[in-house]
Fold this protein.
Amino acid sequence: MRLRLNGIRKSFGATRALKGVSLSVTAGAGLAVIGENGAGKSTLMKVLSGAHAPDEGTMELDGERYAPEDPLEARRRGVAMIYQELNLVPHLSVEANIVLGVEPSRWGLLDRRKRREEARKALADLHSGIDPAAPVSALTIAQQQLVEIARALVHEPKVLILDEPTSSLTGVDVEHLYQVLDRLRARGVSVLYISHFLEECQRVCSDYVVLRDGESVGAGRLAGIAMRDIIHMMVGREVTELYPRTPHTIGKPILELRNLAGERKPRSMTCTVREGEIFGMFGLIGAGRTETLRAMFGLDPVSGGTVSLNGVEVTGWTPTRLLGCGVSLLSEDRKQEGLLLNRSIAENLLLTRPSPISRGGFIRLGAERRMALDWMERLEVKAQSAEQSIGELSGGNQQKVAFGRLLYHQARLLLLDEPTRGIDVGSKASIYRRIGRAAEQGRTVVLVSSYIPELLGVCDTVAVCCRGEIVAVKPVSEWTEQDLVSAAIGQGTESGLEGKES
């Protein structure tokens, strides 16, 4: 047996994150670790990777006692962890990040030649094409994710743990990752794979373990179980409608883009979005979707074209002014842009609209706490209290808070960039319902997503972006998955061009 965990328990104050979890994986096997946000997956992986010490329980690696004091010791023992939230140093180069903490040396000095060789080899395994000398800060989120993966591979681990590794990757990058994992397993590397995309788990792993509320509630072979049964184990109830639709009426044009261009991207975005519409935007990484939202919200400079809201041109307005007009943005990068990780849940939820909880320019702490608790209950946020630092929550619970802030702000135009990234199946359905209710209330939603089933299941209209332009816009009923991908790579878009004025 390559790895065995027995009776692992871990508490944080009164919160019991792990309540006696056991699992095992053989050499060269893939084990899917499945569960809702807050089920204990990330805590368990942090125990395994040396970031947390267990309160009780034992671990064995290749038949020997395994109790790493820190992640560096775990890495040296052959256990590498790829976290959902990136852990890179932005001002350092790609190659420096890849070997950080285990830098090759010669006569006590850094061996730069060997460092570059190791980095190039790890990047070549991923077919990334990333320049090892480039600063990490110059890379896209997807490229940074690949650097994080390369960092874990550089010393060929015995056990590789991946926490939502594909959340920012394109379909091509995902397939490259699958091929790398296939090669690693063929060499005897054991893979522990955490993902909310159950089809990914089936592709990568042969076995599964399901966690719920810090306990193991099921395990077995993936080949012999239906996905609905796994979902039932995850949430403790039936989830019969993964893409719930709330009836809503689409009204007059609200948002208009006319040849919108940024300094680098987008090149030329033209579309019309209507009141009460859920307008999806699809495209490969680098197509300009995120840059379009940022330009619309005043975060990035506009070099050409216009943005109009209710017939009034708002091109170049500041985010503060747009917030005052009922426009809100949910960033894809919640760690750097979406949240204040060192502040409380309450502060993060209520930050942009203090009027209901303030008097005479001062925040009423009691009112703040009551309001935050009310919204935490609505959003099903799992936390100790409203005063808890949001940086202590799981990634999925952080995302719920970031999304909830837009709803609390009473935004009339919601710009959502990958809103369900890192969210489990049950929570996704909850967020989809809230998006539907927002549309029912006459709010307008622009939804950027890389997950095609989400776009087809939630949106009224889907636009496809390719090389910085919108190349097709159609009602969702007229799209198939194949058509969306074809349009995104610049093929078969002619039939959708007339929809650019929606």
